[in-house]
Protein: aspartyl aminopeptidase
Amino acid sequence: MTVMQMASGPAIPASALRFLNVAMLEKAGFVQLHEKQSWDQQVKLGGRYYYKRNQSSLVAFAIGQKYRPGNGVHIVGAHTDSPNLRVRPTSTRTKEGYLQCSIETYGGGLWATWFDRDLSLAGRVIVATSDAQNKFESRLVHVRRPLLRVPTLAIHLNRTANEAFKFNQEDNLQPILGLEDALNATADKLNAQANHGVGTPTMESKHHPVLLQLLAEELGCKVSHIQDFELSLYDTQPPAAGGIANEFLFAPRVDNQMSCFCATEGLIDSLEKNDALENASSIRAIALFDNEEVGSVSYQGAESNLVWSMIHRLAALAVQNTTSGPLNSQALFDQSLARSFLVSSDTAHAVHPNYASIHEQNLRPKINAGPVIKTNAKQRYASTAVTTFLLRRIAKLADVPLQEFEVRNDCACGSTIGPMLSKQVRTVDLGNPQLSMHSIREMCGSHDVERKIRLFAEFFRSFGQVDEELTVD
Structure:
């Protein structure tokens, strides 16, 4: 899969995982596991596996042929979500003859960039599988045509707009779906078809009937089968290569679907040779979490047990299958964590030519000059001297240049999944440099993508050896 195919992919974590990451993994021989099931008879040395949670998070791992209880797990972690606008649970809104869709903001987006864009909807819908409404499933939907728009107020009516574009996120950020006449033309017909959802008010009382009809057409189901949904707005403009030498990628959701792509491709590339796992004694893994943009505190976020449960299960399986006498799975789990290492992969702030003074004078990452190690004395990033040194050793083996970033003392610092995951394992924070972070369309370097993939592949192949060369405790 190419970078452009990835950037052109689905607009929400669940769809991106299904149509990009899972497709890549299954093509490379990874087999799906399920958390609700026992892995006892499924997981083998030398095997490749993945599992999902909530349709929006994923862990994939490959087990070395020489893996033993308590050995390390080498992980690249990233997050699947990006700032966006989300349809409210009750979204019906009409004003001045317009149908509007009530939204709320998700994450810390540059919301001004969502004005005057051709927007559409993507997400998941809970539907009944039959008129009996006793079986249900979660299905993905992706409306491909422009559907909504948040128009700006004309300059003639807002003469100070070029001095400071100020707006109220509740009152001025609500998108237009259509004209009220369109609702009146179909409302009676759709309401006559309405069935009550399971334990909820009818969907027709919470959302415009024309919106529900659109979803039903996209899904190939009846309106009355729609029970609930989670929908996000997205920009329909496709990504593009840009710059005088096509050295840039202009695309949505660079933060952080790009890292998810690089992690997946790096893991697969590390397994390219048939004997890649023959002498490997560790587990190679990627962990792609949802909800980083809103704090990671969720069942599918980095604060959950998503990745740790995998390590614990494998330790327990090893204990169960051992012939060398009784072992304690908790002790092996703890030992495994001590031997493990995680690369927290997000994006980094490239120096901006129009705002260069925002960066610390000696720490100004450049696009297409290599991935960036991110540090912060207040632990907003998880990098330490030890973890940074180890990654530098890997980068040297991979022939990948690295850059550094810290914020100025008078600037606030963002964060990543790194600090919370570093509570359990040694962690370094890394990211490719980009501009327009959290805009509806972002900008990064096309050459940095290949370098990051190469770095991750070398990390999976060589970290065990590099780690043995350093003594700390």
Summary: The chain has ten helices and 18 strands. The mean pLDDT is 93. The two ends are 42 Å apart (CA to CA).
